[in-house]
Amino acid sequence: MVSPVTSTRKTLSSIVLVLLAIGGLVSLSGSTVHAQPTVGARAAPAARPARPTIERAARLALDRGIRAVKAARKPADYAPAEQAFREAARLAPAWPNPLFNLGLILAAQGKHRQARRAFDRYLRLAPHTKDARWLRSTKLPELARISSKAYRAGQQFRRALHGYGAKQYRRALLAMKRAVGLDPLRGRYRALLGLLYLKLTRYDHAIPELVEAIRLGHRSLSVYINLAYSYNRLDDPSSAITYLRKGLALHPDEPSVERARRNLRIYVKNRARINDLERRIGPLGKSFNIGVIVSLLTPSLGSSRAAQVKLFKDEVETFASTNTGFLFNMDLDWRAGRAVAIGLSVTGLQTKFREAGYANGDFKQFAFGGQIKFMAALTPRIELRGGLFAGLATHAGSSPLHPGGTEVKIADGLGVVGGISFELAYFFKFFDWVGMLFEIGVIGQPLGFVGEGEDRYSMTTPPMLYFGLGFVSAL
After folding, report:
1. Distance of alpha carbon 264 from alpha carbon 221, whole angstroms
2. Which of 122, 58, 127, 59 is nearest to 96 (CA)?
3. 303 contact partners, CB below 8 Å, separation of at least 6
4. What is the torsion angle, in degrees rounded to the nearest 10, for the CA atoms of residue 200, residue 201, residue 204 and residue 210?
5. pLDDT one-digit tens code per residue, 265-323
6. Cα–Cα dist 100/96, whole Å
7. Is 210 helix (H, G, I), strand (E, B) or coil?
8. Is-contact 86 102, C-beta < 8 A?
9. What is the DSSP string of 154-200?
10. E strand or H helix that includes residue 356
11. DSSP secondary-structure letter at 52?
C-alpha cells in the first residue's frame, strides 16, 4: 500500500491517499469521493461497527488527523496527526480505520515498534480486508527488517556513547556514522554525530548534522549550544547568535541556560569584532590592499656564486655583499577571505658586493612576481601576516678593476627570485582603512644568468635579510 519513507513528499502523498475522510475517501487532490460509509484505500474492513455506533467525536478526531497530514511538510510535522489518530482510536476502540492511519503515521516518523502494535490491533479488528492482506504480505515484513536495522543502529549508538565517555572520539565517530547509516531519521543520532565532529574540530561537518537533528525534532538546548559554537568557530557569529536565541526561547528554564547566555554575550562581541574587520577589509573579507614598504638590507646570509662555463672548463668566482643596502617593495593584494590574500609584488633593491681582486661594486635588482599571504587578526586593529613570494628579476652589477679604475659590468642578466616575509599591521582608529606595517623578511636569487654565448655565467645570490616600515591601505 505505502512503501517505506524514501522522501518526505512521497510519504506525505502516500499517507494522504489512504487516510479516510468522514463518509468518503480523500484523494491526493483533496476532493472527497462519496462511497460507502467507511472506505479504505483498497477495501472497507469486513467487520466494523455500524455507522451510528461510531462516536461523532471519533470521526471529528479522524478528520482532524487527515487535515494535519495534508498540512505536514516533513515527518517532524506529523505529531498533531498522530495525536488525533490516537484520540480517534481511543474514542472508538472497535473502529479499525484510525489504527491503520496511526500505523502509517508512526512508521513515517521512524517509530517502527509502535507502528507494528497499531497494525496488529487493526488486524484483530479487520483481518480479512485487502489492507490486512497487504499488511501481512508487505508492510509488516518490511517493518521487521527496519526494526532489525534500528536495533543494530541502537547498538552502534551505545558504542558511540561509550567511546564519547572515554574521550575516544574517533572510534565513537565511526560507530555513530554506522548508526546514522542504519537509521538516518533519528534526531538524537544526528545530534551525537554533530557533537563528535565538534570534538574533533571538524565544525564544517558538525553544522549540517546538528541542523538535521533540529529538523528531525531533536531540539534540546545542548544541540543549539553546539550548533552556535560551531558557527562561531567558523567566524559566523551572526548564525551562532540566531540559533542560540532560538534555543533559549524554546528552553528558558533549563540548567544550561546560564552557559548559553554567557556564550551569547561572547558571540555578540565577536560579531562586533568581525564587523569592525569587515569595515576595514571589505564585505566577506574581499577587498584590495595596497602596501608600500622601504627596508634596510643586512649582510647576506652567505656568499654569492658565479660560474663561468667555457669549453671543457668551469671558472667559479665567489664574492660577498657588504653590510648595507636598501629595498623598496610595493604589494597589491586581493583578500580572498579574512585569512588569505593573493596578489602581485614589485621589489627593487640595491646593495654592495666585494670580490677578490676588485674594489667594491654595486648590485641592483628589480623583481616582479606573485605572492600569497596568510593573515591572522590578533585584535580588530592588529594583524599578523606571513607571505611567500616568487618572481622574475633583472639584475645589474658593476665594479672597478681597482680602486679608482674603470668600472666593468659583471652582473647584468636575468634571474628567478624568491622570498618569505612576516608583517605586523596596525590600523588606525580614526582612519581604519589605513594602517602601518612593520616587516621582516628574506629575499634571494637561487637561479640567474649573466652574459651570452660562451661567456654566459650562472649566478646566484644568497638570502638577504631585511626589515622596514611602511603603510597599507584598503581600496
Report:
1. 13
2. 122
3. 318, 319, 320, 462
4. 60
5. 999 888 887 776 655 554 444 466 787 888 777 766 666 665 554 433 455 556 555 55
6. 6
7. helix
8. yes
9. HHHHHHHHHHHHTT-HHHHHHHHHHHHHH-TT-HHHHHHHHHHHHHT
10. none
11. G
SS3 content of the chain, % helix, strand, coil (to 5): 45, 35, 25
**What is residue 338's predicted lDDT score, i.e. its pLDDT?**
63
| 229 touches 198 (CB < 8 A) | yes
Domain span at residue 416 reads 285-474
Name the pTM for this structure: 0.44
Of the three residues 281, 307, 322, the one that is the final residue of a domain is 281
Q: For residue 279, give the 3-state DSSP assignment.
A: helix
Strands 382-400 and 413-427 come out as antiparallel
Task: Round to whole Å and give the CA distance between 138 and 117.
Answer: 16
Residues 259 and 289 reside in one and the same domain: no
How many domains is the chain partitioned into structurally?
Answer: 3
Q: Which of residues 233, 250, 281 is at a domain's end? A: 281
- Separation between Cα atoms, residue 392 and residue 408, nearest integer Å: 24
Task: Give domain status of residue 138, yes or no.
Answer: no
291 and 274 part of one domain: no
* Integer Cα distance of 160 and 52 in angstroms: 54
228 and 289 together in one domain: no
Amino acid at 172: A
Where residue 320 falls (left for φ over 0; alpha for ψ -120 to 50; beta otherwise) is: beta
Per-residue pLDDT, averaged over 351-357, amounts to 61
Q: Residue 463 is part of a domain; what is its CATH number?
A: 2.40.160.20
60 and 198, same domain (yes or no): no
Grid coordinates standing for 308?
A: 663561468
Q: How many other β-carbons are positioned within 10 Å of the β-carbon of residue 315? A: 10
Residues 6+ apart with CB under 8 A from 16: 26, 28, 66, 69, 70
Mean pLDDT within 245-251: 92
H helix and E strand count, the chain: 13, 13
Q: Which three cell numbers stand for residue 36?
A: 460507502
Q: Which three cell numbers stand for residue 85?
A: 489518530
Instruction: Tell me the DSSP string of 373-435.
Output: EEEEESSSSEEEEEEEEEEEEEEEEEEESSTTS-EEE---EEEEEEEEEEEEEEE-SSSTTEE
Within 10 Å of residue 86's Cβ, how many Cβ atoms? Answer: 18
CB 147 within 8 A of CB 111: no
